[in-house]
Amino acid sequence: MKGYLMQMLKSYLAKRKLCQKRLVTKDGHCNIEYGNVMHSNFFAYVLDLWTTFVEIRWRFILVLFVASFTFSWFMFGLLWYWIARNNGDLAWQHPEDNHKVCVRNLYGLTTAFLFSMETQTTLGFGGRDITPYCPSAIALIMIQTLMGSIINCFWCGVVMTKISLPKKRVKTIVFTEMAVICPHEGNLCLQIRVANLRKSLLIGGQIYAKLLRTKIIPEGETIILDQVDVEFTVDVGKDNLFFVCPLTLYHVIDKSSPFFEMSVETLYQQEFELVVFLDGMAESTSSFCQVRTSYLPQEIMWGYKFLPIISRNKEGRYHVDFSNFSRVEPTLTANSPTGINNDYYYQFSKNNFENHGFEVIDIDKTVSGKM
């Protein structure tokens, strides 16, 4: 039991250490800090108020939602109290019996607040209402009604926009936790698998990647996060993908590849981060979304290939077995791109390797039962 807990602790610390090294986390979030932004560019956030509200967390949205309505009710309640006081309607002012009030049954600040809330929410309980004797009261009720409508429209827009953000759609597009390097059609290739867990397509999909690393140029300057383009394709290209089933992405390791100088012995000694992007438009909502993930050298397996995932049954229907989505098996692989035709490297393992962190689901049952 103690050994099992120690193993779990070591695994957790190792994952945390890898997470701290990343610029892009496995689920696509950018792991970067901005310093002294609010001090110098505070008004930029104020001017772009709509984007600020859309991007803040739900807990702050709820607090601001309640605060905005409560504040407006209170401020207009003060104005109603001021109108009633100027007209001599309050109880402590002892109005005469034939006195013409501006608002019936408004006796103090509490009733003024209640009347303000009833007016802005169009409740109209019937206990308090304005009379036609005060032009200022008529003008104020028009202003409050318009302001209440503006506040309602603003918050409805914010809530609907946050709900319809494509961030939730990308949760149903997953990459394998590990990448592999193995032969494909006579070339040594870096391979990644991606799957769409919904039957609704991602239209106009495009695949590309960036290799991030620290580089020292001949002038002696150190460039942090130097970006190098990495070309990924599938069997039919890299643009306008028919993303109806899981796809395997291929990067040919040739002389133009940043991986060409690496080998099985030197791969894990490198310091880089491979960030993979998949852009497309959700078919159901017509919203553009981008899926991101990243791979460190420790997450690239040399000498393994992905297990087949697509099959065809006797009835002629295609079947996707998600239990094999992240599973790999050893295969005969060259030690390095330069030794593709002579030296080979083989991972001697009798068991298939399974990447953790991917939830196996039956997509047919999920779609027919819940979607």
Automatic annotation (TrEMBL):
Protein's UniProt keywords contain Ion transport: yes
Membrane-topology annotation of the record: Multi-pass membrane protein
Site (Role in the control of polyamine-mediated channel gating and in the blocking by intracellular magnesium): N152
DNA-binding keyword on record: no
Inward rectifier potassium channel C-terminal domain ranges (all copies): 173-330
Predominant location category: membrane
One GO term (biological process): regulation of monoatomic ion transmembrane transport
Record-annotated Potassium channel inwardly rectifying transmembrane domain positions: 24-166
Places the protein is found: Cell membrane; Membrane
Transmembrane stretches, start-end: 60-83, 137-161
Superkingdom: Eukaryota
GO cellular component entries: monoatomic ion channel complex; plasma membrane
Molecular functions (GO terms): ATP-activated inward rectifier potassium channel activity
Cited PANTHER family: ATP-SENSITIVE INWARD RECTIFIER POTASSIUM CHANNEL 1 (PTHR11767:SF6), INWARD RECTIFIER POTASSIUM CHANNEL (PTHR11767)
Family: Belongs to the inward rectifier-type potassium channel (TC 1.A.2.1) family.
Name of protein: ATP-sensitive inward rectifier potassium channel 1
Organism field: Bagarius yarrelli
